[in-house]
Design a protein that fits this description.
The chain is an alpha/beta fold. It contains 21 helices and 21 strands. The strands form four sheets. Strands 13, 14, 15, 16, 17, 18 and 21 form a seven-stranded antiparallel β-sheet that branches. The chain has a six-stranded parallel β-sheet with strand order 2-3-1-4-5-6, sandwiched between helices. It has a six-stranded mixed β-sheet with strand order 9-8-7-10-12-11, with helices on both faces. α7 packs across α8 and α17 runs antiparallel to α19.
Length: 707
DNA sequence: GTTCTAGAAC
DNA sequence: GTTCTAGAAC
């Protein structure tokens, strides 16, 4: 069909049909390692309507690094298919670029995008990438990056580029991403040099685009105003109620035309947290009590807010919680500039409501996963995969009363459409018996948890508000707070080991269906052998309580259960010790388990098993990551919850013998050591019955049992 | 949770 | 060349 040659050295000929497609683009990324080249490509490709292909020398060879000719060949082939290509390799000197420039022709224009970021930023990113490996990559990386940058030759138009974009900081990069994202299949970009390099440079499109009101942008997904498509109550409620009392709904007109009406120009820079009422929807928390708590907590935080604002949001003006809160806030004379209620969709506050909120709160579930309904589903939906990834990078679970601040990657639609820079997940108390951790109408506990939830939320917001400018400005003097670095997170990986994650849960729920594995079952617990024992004897005591998935979920009401599990575990150690008196046992929980459903490990301290293969296996049983059952019981008894040591460092710590504490370079050497080490266990372990030996040897305190 | 494997470490 | 690990994939 098409006749052009794919040999990189010969320029492709245009044929008539192709003119209709618009010109293809070869965009050479130019930048040091970790300057963000791949991220740039991914960010553009995620949202662009133009067919792009990223040609990455590091992965072109079936995921392995390949050669320049391979890249050239692949680029030519993609161009032939009508696609535009990103050349994702350093391209720091002219010689490395020249062959790619030759791909250009009548129907193919060649661009350079220069990610000329500070060397120290690239180096720190590399260090970050490899830090957990515990080697000295950081130092080496610094030398490599510095040397590469010393020899760099910035591209010039005279090399044959029709357009060069220089990015000197992350704001420039964002702008360039926006610019390239907006180039549709038939569009072209202005020719020339853009960015600070050229004094005659025109202002970059990207920044202007952002500063325009959203309906004016020409991004691919902006559609003509069609109010009939709107789903939320906003389209029915055209004007929010304003009361003449001290506390009012912010007076915003929402017309048929979804053009936002700014409250005032100044407001766009005010750090603003929009939050839904926590726990009052699906979790069925009493509205009166909830509104009291909201107002009380808002009042507490009022004088810490500075110029920041809090906005309680609900979908409908008939919202009971909004009117309750409004009335109570008015009663307390709370400054309505700093705190007000707002009717609208929390995912479209700016585009549909004209309200700028740089931070929004999500009424999350304990797993921090999308789904369910209501606000959680809506926010994850609107924010895209980037939020899910960014969230999972920070935490896997959240327990009631807590909040988790997640900087929103700039790739998220919520970021570029709504100006949301952070999402704060909050989990409140649950009064709905059909949801996990139901408090069974215990409002004493419930109110405490809800108070904690709002405190955590507002604290999280303040930490964000204090460290960043809420919205990009035209001046280019954007303060790049610490959170900016987080935009590096690239995000489409999703984890899908759900089936094995559920295995323990399934057994606990239906032990009768797992006869072969179950050693013992009562109404409260199930005992099984660990499927991959990490010692001669290793079994698990599972709770059968629904919604009790891990140690973080454990509260005082589970104290009796914890004691039962411990007693059952001890009973099994008796049996094993009768068979082999040389064994010593330890009973405890992993701080963050991999598998769902709270389970107590009962594990012999030989730690002699072919299944113990990795550092994290070893460290999960021999560092503070392993929480001794006796300690957990004591902590839950006295503080209502157990200490969770959720620190990846613990699992990647150096390998040390659990008896003599000597360090070993790798698992095989460690194993060979422990097979001979006869040292006594550390004194710490010999206290409080953390160790369970055959009999009470001298020096080891008697077992702790729980009546 | 395990398995697989590239590439680092030796 | 062989051993070992970390990370991806499942």
């Amino acid at each position: 069909m098409e006749e052009m040659e794919i040999d990189g050295a010969s320029k492709p000929k245009a044929c008539e049909q192709e003119k209709e497609k618009g010109k293809r683009i070869v965009a050479l990324l130019v930048g040091a390692p970790a300057s963000g080249k791949s991220t740039f490509c991914e960010n553009v490709m995620r949202a662009s309507s133009r067919p792009w292909v990223r040609i990455c020398q590091d992965t072109i060879n079936n995921g392995k690094s390949g050669s320049k000719p391979q890249c050239l060949k692949s680029a030519a082939a993609s161009l032939k298919e009508g696609k535009s290509v990103f050349i994702d390799r350093c391209n720091l000197v002219k010689d490395q670029r020249v062959d790619f420039v030759k791909l250009g022709g009548a129907e193919v224009e060649v661009h350079a995008v220069v990610l000329d970021l500070p060397a120290k930023l690239c180096i720190s990113r590399i260090a970050k990438r490899t830090r957990h490996e515990g080697n000295l990559q950081g130092g080496k990386a610094a030398a490599v990056v510095n040397r590469m940058l010393q020899n760099k030759e910035l591209p010039k138009l005279s090399e044959g580029f029709s357009r060069i974009t220089f990015c000197r900081n992350e704001t420039d990069v964002e702008a360039a991403v926006n610019t390239y994202t907006a180039v549709g299949p038939l569009d072209t970009l202005p020719r020339g040099c853009f960015g600070q390099k050229d004094p005659n440079a025109k202002t970059q499109l990207g920044i202007m685009k952002f500063l325009k009101r959203p309906h004016e942008t020409d991004t691919q997904d902006s559609v003509p105003s069609q109010p009939t498509e709107e789903k939320g109550p906003l389209c029915k409620t055209h004007e929010t109620v304003s009361s003449s009392s001290g506390m009012a709904n912010q007076k915003i007109k929402v017309s048929e035309d979804p053009v936002p009406v700014s409250i005032s120009q100044d407001d766009s820079d005010v750090p603003t947290l929009a939050f839904p009422s926590i726990s009052t929807a699906d979790f069925q928390f009493n509205l009166e009590k909830a509104s009291d708590i909201i107002v009380q907590k808002v009042e507490e935080f009022m004088d810490k807010l500075g110029n920041a604002r809090l906005v309680l949001v609900d979908l409908t003006e008939r919202s009971k919680i909004l009117s309750l809160v409004r009335a109570k806030a008015a009663e307390k004379n709370i400054d309505s500039k700093k705190f007000f209620t707002f009717v609208g969709d929390i995912c479209q506050l700016y585009t549909k409501g004209g309200l700028r909120c740089n931070v929004i709160a999500n009424a999350a579930n304990w797993r921090l996963k999308p789904g369910g309904g209501g606000v959680n589903a809506a926010i994850f939906n609107a924010a895209g995969a980037a939020l899910e990834t960014a969230t999972m990078d920070r935490a896997k679970t959240l327990h009631p009363g807590n909040a988790l601040v997640v900087p929103l990657p700039s790739t998220s639609p919520l970021y570029h459409k709504e100006g949301v820079t952070h999402v704060i997940h909050v989990l409140g108390p649950n009064m709905n018996p059909n949801r996990p951790n139901c408090l069974d109408n215990d409002y004493i506990k419930g109110c405490k948890v809800l108070e904690d939830a709002y405190s955590s939320l507002f604290k999280g917001f303040l930490s964000v508000a204090n460290t960043q400018v809420s919205f990009p400005r035209s001046s280019g003097s954007i303060s790049s707070g610490p959170s900016k670095l987080e935009n590096e997170i690239s995000g489409t990986k999703t984890k899908s080991w759900a089936p094995c994650l559920q295995a323990l849960y399934n057994i606990a729920m239906q032990p009768e269906k797992h006869n072969k594995q179950v050693l013992e079952a009562t109404d409260d617990i199930v005992v099984i052998n660990d499927m991959y024992p990490k010692a001669k004897r290793h079994l698990l005591v599972l709770t059968r309580t629904k919604g009790l998935d891990c140690l973080a979920d454990v509260r005082k009401e589970h104290l009796h259960l914890l004691k039962t599990m411990h007693e059952v575990g001890l009973r099994w150690t008796d049996k094993f010790l009768g068979e082999d008196a040389s064994l010593v046992f330890r009973l405890g929980y992993h701080s963050i388990p991999s598998m769902r459903q709270l389970h107590l490990h009962v594990i012999s301290q030989d730690l002699d098993s072919k299944h113990l293969k990795h550092k994290k296996h070893w460290n999960s049983f021999t560092t503070a990551f392993f929480r001794d059952s006796v300690d957990v019981i004591e902590e839950v008894d006295s503080h209502g919850k157990a200490t969770i040591l959720d620190d990846n460092k613990l699992l990647s710590m150096e390998l040390r013998c659990h008896r003599c504490r000597s360090a070993h370079p790798n698992i095989p050497r460690l194993k060979s050591h422990i097979s001979n080490c006869q040292d006594p266990f550390p004194a710490e372990l010999q206290k409080k019955g953390r160790l369970v030996p055959a009999q009470t040897n001298s020096g080891i305190e008697p077992l702790t049992t729980f009546p």
